Amino acid sequence: xxxxxxxxxxxxxxxxxxxxxxxxxxxxxxxxxxxxxxxxxxxxxxxxxxxxxxxxxxxxxxxxxxxxxxxxxxxxxxxxxxxxxxxxxxxxxxxxxxxxxxxxxxxxxxxxxxxxxxxxxxxxxxxxxxxxxxxxxxxxxxxxxxxxxxxxxxxxxxxxxxxxxxxxxxxxxxxxxxxxxx
Length: 182
Description:
60% of the residues lie in helices and 2% in strands. It is mainly α. The chain has a domain at 63-171: Histone, subunit A (Orthogonal Bundle), CATH 1.10.20. It has a two-stranded antiparallel sheet with strand order 1-2. A hairpin with a 5-residue loop joins strand 1 and strand 2. It is elongated, with a radius of gyration of 32 Å. Mean pLDDT is 74; it is low at 1-12 and 29-50.
């Protein structure tokens, strides 16, 4: 039976659909040989970079599509790292990575780690600045309640160890000095 005659002429059939139908009919007509079946199964399944088996005809699941998208964006991002100069110099990154035992020759990975360290430092500085703003706002409110005749004119932002230790404690880093008891 011809595929074109079985379907309505008003709906066009793509060549891929025709090939799939022909393959299905051919597999139904041929007797199964166990040695050939194993070879065909190995050819049909392909492994991507994450060792996830996929069949070319099977639709991708949402999880597989997400992994492929992430791999694609990571590869594109690593290509962008070739031309990116991070704020933390490569020599400093190499020194500290060497001290921790990290050995990698790919400069893109090192720059990616430098970018992650830069973001970590920026997040800590932003959090410490927020703690500083809260502390100074509290100080101004207390003075307004006391109604001092001379309000504080100093509007400089000063990063204190208290602000920094509060910001770092959110990330699980304790830099507070131990209390001294007399």
